[in-house]
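Aim 2, interim progress. The first record below pairs a target sequence with its structure tokens.
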Amino acid sequence: MSKILEGLKYSESHEWVKVEGNIALVGVSDYAQKEMGDITYVDMPDVDDEVSAGEEFGALESVKASSDLISPVSGTVIEVNSDLEDAPEKVNEDAFANWIIKVEISDASELDALMDAAAYKEFIGE
């Protein structure tokens, strides 16, 4: 059974969002990291890059597969989790503690299209 945290928003492409004011921390769900297996590389955008909801912003690579990261919100990347450059396996250790990017949100209404914890749990069939 996957860990699903209350108070976060989830996308159908298995990213989570934690909103702090107009800043969104974005990572991948526990379900997604389990499905991928041992993560070996995290491809992230650069600070000041623009991301758009529903568009690719990077990728996760594992021993089994490569998977695009899809931004759940639009805005400007204000920080990337540089710890993941040297230790991508941290996503496997705790997918929620190891966010991938921080985004200054440009359209908060996009959050309404995301799932809450209960809806995401149902979406993944748990």
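The second target in this work package is listed in the same format:
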Amino acid sequence: MVDLDDALALGAREKIYRTISKNPGLHFRELQRRTDLATGSLQYHLEYLTKKHFVKIAKQGKFVRYYNTRGEQFGEDETLMNLLRQESLRKIVLFLFTKKSATNPTIAAAIGLSPSTISWHLNKLVSNDVVSVRKRLRKKYFFLTNPEKTRLMLTQHKTSFLDSLVDHFVEIWEEMEA
């Protein structure tokens, strides 16, 4: 059995493992950008770390996301982290934090995507219970199902998103709590 120190003896492997530990839920291309490793090298070392159970794979649609098996365990919140890793979905979630509830056209105008694209993203968020829908008259209003859990995920992993919107959200939230 290989222990963690032996597995991380190679610099490339240690770089991959540390990057995944600091940024849970990264997909392959983002992991490649952050580690600056060649595709073949990254694939080889990820496969090794996965076989030795130091890294686990979470499949989400066409993306494969990577998590450290020895660090923070997300359990059912892994789906939330996977969704927040997607920029458009994250923008929708952050917008709903500011407005509490909003219609599809309002969200589309604020984010700069078409209503049909927003609808597709909202369906994904609703089906994963991140966002809920309330109908009033003929309009559908979308709101965060569990804003506290979502806020915690964003604030605890702020640095891993590399997103100025998340940074701004966390700054405002921390000022409100102070």
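The radius of gyration is 18 Å. This observation will shape the mutagenesis plan for the next reporting period.
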